Structures are given as structure tokens and as C-alpha cells.
């Protein structure tokens, strides 16, 4: 077995690791031993020379170490194939008749810094750190061993890569992207179809994490008017239309996303009124016009991408939510989300409460929900619990 460089923790810093966390921060490291290069594999020890695990290290990053295993085992092709098999079997048990979902959710699946979304026989792979970049060939082999794939795309364009000064890397590494990539999702006795652009679309081309929150629309939207903000390619809106909404208005400023949205509605035989403008401006205009909607969905992009942006992000969330609440009809329902990890659940609900005060409305929380089951939460790592979705009734 290869001998890896050693990294030693400072005294008193191993408890979080022993409890199951997979990250070591730069200020927790006491010493290095052996030839160390950015992104290389290392062995982690406490200050008493006790082995804690094996992973990869970038001494120039705030998150200096990400652990892949607690065992003294080779991190070879077989290791990655086993890890991917576990992830695949988990998703297969959750969605036995489907082939589109988040296949690998980073730390929660024991593969930190890695995201893989499956679209049938196409896999979209995202790496957020140097250590995982250097292991992508092993990841690719593991995917081939476990899935019948015709195309693998590297979509390494996340802004988080800038934290390790990594370049964008978007390319097809095997096969060809299908002309019509799409997601099929069961919804009651229906099957919803979403065309996706895995190469040019946002993230991997589709947001699987809101799937089960979209399904909850069925209990609220029948015969109701729906406003879907930040609609992207129509996720919430199409679910609402298929659940019997009387009308769906979607707001999406991106022209390519708007075209895909219209295509998705047309393919399902549903109608939508699409507004291609900024959400905040449209909501404020509707407010002046005294427009009302029975159901409003607010699913903005992450506004707090770091802790230092939290205060300003909460103010933006509050203004958006206050305006949306003012547009709800009596007894109207707001689906309000935040995908910013730095916004806690309690902080999110406090923000919504302030927004209701600003709107002069009383709101009640009907459901507090999170991310879909193909984005499982590693209970020892709060960082994997990021999505908040509050279903609220306004009086």
C-alpha cells in the first residue's frame, strides 16, 4: 500500500472529526510530514499520532482536508466504484422506476466535493475542489462500472471553485450529449417531462432538490391562480398546472430558460403566461396594480454565498417575501425557499415573520420542508442541510 503524507491536528481538534464530520480547516492543523502537494492524498492523525482517516489536502484552502474514508484502505478505482454503487442503490430504492435524479451528493455520499446528476444515460459531473479534480478519472471509471451510460459531461463551472483558484472546465469526456435530454418524473398517475440543457443550463441543467416540494402543490393549487417566481425551466409552475391550477404565470428573466419553460409546458399540453423580466421589479409593479394570486412560489438563487453576505441576503429575502405576501389573496399560500446554507431554518422563519409584518399580514406556517431525498443530509455535517422551503398561509 502506498505511503501517504501525514497531517497532524492540533490538540483538542479531533472531536468533530470523530463525530463524523469530513472537513478539517486550515487553523486546525498542527504539522505536515512528507512531501505534500496541493490536492494530494494524505493520512490524517490527531496530536497523539492516532490515525483518523484518509482523504485529500489543499494547504492553500480554508477547508484544507476532506476525508474519503476512516479506514486504512487504498483510494483506487475499486474504492470509487464501491462508493458509487452504494449511491446508485440508494437512489434506485428511492425512485425504482426512474432514471433521473441526483446520484451523488458530495459529503453525504462519502465523496466530498463531488456532485453527479443522472439524466437517463447521461451523467453530469461537478467537482468543487482541487482534490476531487485530481480523482475525476477514478470517478469516471466508477460511473462506467455501475451505470449504462452513453455520455458523461464535466460541468465544473461553479463559482465555489474560485475559492481554490480553479478554472472552469466544461466538456464532454465521453459520448455525445443527446439532442433532447430530459427528465421524467412521476406525479400521481401522471408523468411530467422536462427538457433540459445539461451543457448550457444553470447548475447541471435541472434542480432535483425541490422535487418533493413541487409535489406538495397538489394539495393547494386546484382551481387556483399561481405565480411562479424565478421559474427557470418551469419546475414548480408545470407541477402546478398538472395539479389543476386555473392559471400559471411564470417569471424568468433568462431567455434560454424561458424558451425551455415554454417547450416544457407545450410538451405537457399546458398553458403558461411567461414574463421575461426581473422578479423584484415585476412584484413591485403587481403590488402597485393591486394584483392578487392564490399561490405564489418564491425560489430565488442562493443570495448568501458566504457568511459575510448573510445580513444583506436576509434583507433581500425579506423584501422579496414581503412583496410576495402582499400579493396573496385572502387565505393565499406562499411557497418560500432559500437554498443558502448560511441562512438557518430559524433565521429563515424570523425573516419571513418580519416580511409579514412589513406586508401588514398575518401568516401561519403549514409545513416546513427541506431538500429531496436524493440530497440526503449527513447528520454529522450541518453543511449538507441547506434547503429551506416554508409553506405559509396568509390571512
Explain the overall architecture:
By secondary structure, this protein is an alpha/beta fold. α2 packs across α4 (136-146) and α9 (310-326) packs across α10. It has 3 domains: 6-69, Roll (Archaeosine Trna-guanine Transglycosylase, Chain: A, domain 4); 77-175, RNA methyltransferase domain (HRMD) like (Transcription Regulator spoIIAA, 2-Layer Sandwich), CATH 3.30.750.80; 182-394, 3-Layer(aba) Sandwich (Rossmann fold). It is built from 10 helices and 20 strands. The strands form 4 sheets. The chain has a 7-stranded mixed sheet, sandwiched between helices. The termini are far apart.
Task: Give keywords.
single chain, 395 residues, alpha/beta, Archaeosine Trna-guanine Transglycosylase, Chain: A, domain 4, Transcription Regulator spoIIAA, Rossmann fold, 7-stranded mixed beta sheet, 6-stranded mixed beta sheet, 30% strand
Short note summarizing the structure:
The chain has 3 domains: 64 residues, Archaeosine Trna-guanine Transglycosylase, Chain: A, domain 4, CATH 2.30.130.10; 99 residues, Transcription Regulator spoIIAA, CATH 3.30.750; 213 residues, Rossmann fold, CATH 3.40.50. It is 27% helix and 30% strand.
What is the topology?
Elements: E1 6-9, H1 15-18, E2 23-25, E3 29-33, E4 40-45, E5 51-57, E6 63-69, H2 77-94, E7 100-105, E8 114-119, E9 122-127, H3 130-133, H4 136-146, E10 151-156, E11 169-175, E12 182-187, E13 190-195, H5 211-215, E14 225-229, H6 235-242, E15 247-251, H7 255-267, E16 273-275, H8 279-288, E17 293-298, H9 310-326, E18 328-338, H10 345-359, E19 363-369, E20 388-394
Parallel strand pairs: 1-4, 9-10, 14-15, 14-17, 15-16, 17-18
Antiparallel strand pairs: 1-3, 2-6, 4-5, 5-6, 7-8, 8-9, 10-11, 12-13, 18-20, 19-20
